[in-house]
Amino acid sequence: MSPTYGLAMMALAAAVCVSCATVEVTSDPLQSFARYRSWDWLPASADERNPIDPELDGLVRRSVEKELAARGYRRASWLAPDFYVACQIELIRSIEVHTETNAPQTIFSMNQSPSYVVSDIERRARVFERATVSVDVSDAASLRTVWRGVETKRVRRSFRPHAGDVVKRILDHFPARGHSALGMMARAEDEE
């Protein structure tokens, strides 16, 4: 292993550790992101483009488009893109039932019959969603994955209102147009 490659891997590990703890980022330290200017969605087969929750899928895809545009990347309309983007969403819905026993109460008899102890049980159901969102970037020429960001978030009720924020946090770790991943790592170390 060359000393340059070893230093690049250590810098990458340091940048990931310094960054937001909830986002996991892996990147090819030798890949130059500086030449990337345009992107498009990775073409998917008919089976792969059938999301379980189309509304959530649309929300995530619009958020990716917005965040990449904010970083200076344009979506390739008719030209070949420099890189492809793919998103995956794993959504697990669960219901947790909490049972609480209220304090017992004694009902005293007004005559010769026995007294009664009465207690009741309350059950409350809470809905949770745990979503794992991953954004993969593949070099268009080689179709090799060169960057991946993943975040898992568990929320009460619905994940939809949080989808845009999760995508933003993930793509906050993606280099802006004209910058390299190593340059981002150097800036992260300078900020310490």
TL;DR of this structure?
The chain has 192 residues and is of the alpha/beta class.
The arrangement of helices and strands along the chain is HEEHEEEEEEHH
The coarse silhouette is: rod-shaped
Number of strands: 8
Strand order of the largest sheet: 1-8-7-4-2-3
Residues in β-strands, percent: 25-35%
General description of the model:
The protein is 28% helix and 35% strand. With 192 residues, the protein is α/β, with parallel strands linked by helices. It has a six-stranded mixed β-sheet with strand order 1-8-7-4-2-3. Helix 2 packs parallel to helix 3. The relative contact order is 0.23.
Describe the protein's topology.
Blueprint: H1 3-18, E1 23-27, E2 38-41, H2 54-70, E3 74-75, E4 83-101, E5 105-107, E6 116-118, E7 121-139, E8 145-156, H3 163-171, H4 181-191
Parallel strand pairs: 2-3, 2-4
Antiparallel strand pairs: 1-8, 4-7, 5-6, 7-8
What distinguishing features does this structure have?
single chain; 192 residues; alpha/beta; six-stranded mixed sheet; two-stranded antiparallel sheet; 8 strands; 28% helix; disordered N terminus; disordered C terminus
